[in-house]
Amino acid sequence: MLNVVAINAAARQGIIAAQATSDEMLLESIADGGRTAMHILYSRHNVRVYRFILRMVRDATMAEDLTSQVFLDVWRTASQFEGRSQVSTWLLSIARCKALTALRQRRHEDIDQEERLEIADEADTPEASLDRSTTSAILRACVAKLSPAHREIINLVYYHEKSVEEVGAIIGIPQSTVKTRMFYARKQLADLLKLAGVNSLAA
């Protein structure tokens, strides 16, 4: 009995230690075929990747499929991670590529923007500065009206809390371009919110 308890305790300690491992170390283990490391990395980041893709493709089923594809790519290409960015940035870069490819493939379809799925994020976003009970839906609707480039910037900066440098790495544009797009995205969003009767947005 004591041996069983000791084994279970050791197993729990092993799980806790694995969960405390950095993303970079997990990728090293994944590159060597570590399935436990893959499971932990997936558990840490699958929701973030799914929400990021969903905001791009506006299709829950497609987002689920693409999220699976992202982590399948991670399993296959973990050894190619060079460590020049955060692992989360690398994951979103893969996710963006997958989403854009999927959007190009369905570009011929006539999709009504008003019927696209809207997602409420539990994390702090621009909605945090507004009355959630009355204006969160207005904010999401206004964000949906932004140009794809501006919507992408808002998505990464506010919903995924990425820095200017990280956004540039994910999208593949200079930091100066990120700042310019962010300026105009915020201006356009503020104008849309004002028209909708909302006069403030957190800086």
Automatic annotation (TrEMBL):
Q: Name one Pfam family in it.
A: Sigma70_r4
Q: Where is the RNA polymerase sigma-70 region domain?
A: 41-107, 144-189
Protein name, UniProt field:
RNA polymerase sigma factor CarQ
Q: Which InterPro entries match?
A: RNA_pol_sigma-70-like, RNA_pol_sigma-70_dom, RNA_pol_sigma70_r2, RNA_pol_sigma70_r4, RNA_pol_sigma_r2, RNA_pol_sigma_r3/r4-like, WH-like_DNA-bd_sf
The beginning of the lineage is:
unclassified sequences, metagenomes, ecological metagenomes
The UniProt similarity line reads: Belongs to the sigma-70 factor family. ECF subfamily.
Q: Which gene encodes it?
A: carQ_2
Q: Which residues form a coiled coil?
A: none
Q: Which GO terms describe its molecular function?
A: DNA binding; sigma factor activity
**Record bears the keyword Ion transport:** no
Q: Any one Gene Ontology biological process term? A: DNA-templated transcription initiation
This protein's UniProt keywords? DNA-binding, Sigma factor, Transcription, Transcription regulation
Keyword Magnesium attributed: no
